[in-house]
Design brief:
2 copies of one chain form a homodimer.
Chain A: H1 2-10, H2 17-28, H3 35-42, H4 51-63, E1 67-70, E2 78-81, E3 87-91, E4 97-100, H5 104-118, E5 121-132, H6 134-137
Parallel strand pairs in A: 3-5
Antiparallel strand pairs in A: 1-2, 3-4
Chain A binds a DNA duplex through residues 12-16, 18-19, 34-36, 48-53, 55-57, 59-60, 75-77.
DNA sequence: TTGTTTGCAAAGGTTTTGCACTCCG
DNA sequence: CGGAGTGCAAAACCTTTGCAAACAA
């Protein structure tokens, strides 16, 4: 939570219970939830929170770099605490999303390669792999 | 257009002027347009077409494998004639999307690596690179 | 002819916005 | 206290759906 509080202060954002709750939920639940899922799961502890506040909070967290927004081809965005750069691998049967952490030099080498071949200054990337997870393969 | 007509027949879909127009537009305009953009650009030649038809057609083309749907983090999907597998590189200043074709063995090696390390059976992927294009760097 | 496709309007789902109230600093 | 954040309801989007008319095969 220290990271959150520091980061909020650095961005001139106030520390509110709603922001703490949402960040805390994401921090402890790496299921890449949608705004709706976050809302449903936190309203038990925080019955007065609104879905609009969840969206507004996610926007603040995203803008200050604490959370990343991902889209795997569904109707809605999903959210993820950004600790270190990583990719996502999606099971097309059960729709679960699993983090995948490639080594740094692997990513750097790909970005360098792309930058060289396209003349873009590449600053970030998103990599999604689709397939079937171990559990779904066995059932 | 031969590809389209053959493919439609193989999928028991009828060849209609609307489908020809939309596929033709995508085939000649590799700007990765949204449904709305497609609609706006083809309605000059086809004044009676509706946006709903554009969506329905894109769904048919997607299901029969002629078109791919991509999402780069905007509110809407964008569409792309799928010729060979490729990645996308997005300029965050001008929002243009450029195709990037890595060598086959490069992709295969990444997918193999991911599959091995995650125990997923990986069937496909989407790779998006974000940065600044040559033109925007020079202005 | 027959089943598919189209076009319209309406509905559905996600996300944003306006505004008064509340609360952090 | 003052300005930022919250919560509600309404609005704004994008996309899908239902249905009668039009059309491809």
């Amino acid at each position: 939570m220290k990271i959150l509080i520091e980061n909020l202060k650095n961005n001139n954002l106030k520390v509110t219970p709603q922001r703490l709750t949402i960040y805390n939920y994401l921090y402890h639940n790496h299921i890449h939830p949608s705004a709706e899922t976050i809302y449903n799961n936190i309203k038990e502890q925080n019955p007065t929170i609104s879905l609009a506040t969840v969206y507004k909070t996610l926007k603040s967290l995203k803008d200050s770099g604490l959370v990343q927004e991902i889209n795997v081809g569904e109707d809605s965005f999903r959210y993820d605490v950004q600790i270190t750069p990583h990719s996502h691998i999606i099971c097309t049967k059960c729709n679960s999303i699993v983090d995948y952490f490639p080594e740094d030099n692997f990513i750097d080498s790909i970005q360098d390669k792309v930058a060289k071949e396209t003349n873009f200054q590449v600053t970030s990337h998103q990599m999604y792999f689709y397939g079937t997870c171990k559990d779904c393969l066995n059932s």
